[in-house]
Specification:
Layout: H1 3-28, H2 32-40, H3 42-52, H4 56-76, H5 87-108, H6 116-121, H7 129-148, H8 150-158, H9 160-165, H10 170-208, H11 215-240, H12 244-261
Length: about 280
């Protein structure tokens, strides 16, 4: 097997392993649009890196972290700072404004030309050793932090007010979680791109919810399904000569469809798509 194929698989597996557990919380907390907003800010990060003459990855991380902090700060106001403006509307404004601003900024940078398609839809076959080190280094840090905040984050996800009464620092936990999302999205863009990164977070986790009985099982299942999607997507990309990033997402969607059609016994739920307080996972909604 060629070296570039092995690097692509290694990078894809690294992203899937950390995206699975994070994606589980994205599904439980219905934060898919939040992740998309962070992804759309990436082009601004690319432009920042080019203007300041440092790594585009560092620029993406800086902008994604800034957007994440601003969104959590706005959430902390409970919407009172912008009366009549729903959270999803604010996210939509930020997402598309950031994407458009990044495209305009890149167009104004002369004479630099970059491959926008690679950033929009990913180019996993172009992954190098440095990219793999970024992915696994950031992933290891993100996984360690996620394990450390797992229980308080679960408590906040189930019932934020009850968690606050029990002494959990809700805002701090939310901030750490969105910072982890920003980091993982930033280093994952080269795999599936800006347009598709949210799919890699959401689809494997949604598929794992179909058979998981506990939050931990769902997190592990999402990581394994993500790895399977990477392998199947890469195989399909080589066989049919299709783009690798979209092929990976379609493979994940196919797994989700199969899991959704698989017969299973009905279970009682505690809420649409959220982990139950007893440790069981809801399968409704």
């Amino acid at each position: 097997m060629d070296d570039f194929v092995l690097r692509a698989l290694a990078a894809g597996f690294g992203v899937a392993i950390i995206a699975g557990p994070l994606g589980s919380f994205v599904v439980w907390r219905r934060l898919a649009f939040f992740g998309e907003t962070l992804a759309h800010s990436a082009l601004l990060g690319v432009a920042l890196g080019l203007v300041l003459h440092f790594s585009a990855t560092l620029g993406i991380i800086a902008v994604a972290l800034l957007i994440a902090v601003l969104l959590v700060a706005g959430e902390g106001q409970g919407g009172r700072g912008r009366p009549g403006l729903p959270t999803d509307t604010l996210l939509g404004i930020l997402a598309h404004t950031a994407l458009a601003a990044g495209l305009v900024a890149l167009a104004l940078i002369e004479p630099v030309r970059i491959d926008l398609m690679a950033y929009l839809f990913g180019d996993i076959l172009a992954v190098g050793t440095a990219d793999i080190l970024w992915i696994y280094g950031t992933g290891a840090v993100a996984m360690a932090v996620l394990i450390a905040i797992w229980r308080p984050l679960l408590a906040v996800t189930i019932d934020a007010e009850l968690a606050r009464v029990e002494g959990v620092k809700v805002r701090a936990v939310r901030l750490v979680f969105v910072v982890l999302m920003a980091l993982v999205i930033s280093v994952s863009l080269k795999i599936v791109g800006i347009v598709l990164i949210t799919s890699l977070l959401v689809i494997p986790a949604a598929a794992a919810r179909g058979f998981a009985r506990t939050p931990e099982q769902m997190a592990v299942g999402a990581a394994l399904i993500g790895c399977a999607a990477v392998a199947l997507g890469m195989a399909g990309s080589f066989h049919w000569d299709t783009p690798s990033g979209p092929s990976i997402v379609l493979a994940a969607a196919l797994i989700f469809a199969v899991v959704s059609l698989w017969p299973r016994r009905p279970r009682r739920s505690s809420g649409a798509g959220r982990p139950a307080s007893s440790g069981k996972i809801s399968r409704s909604g």
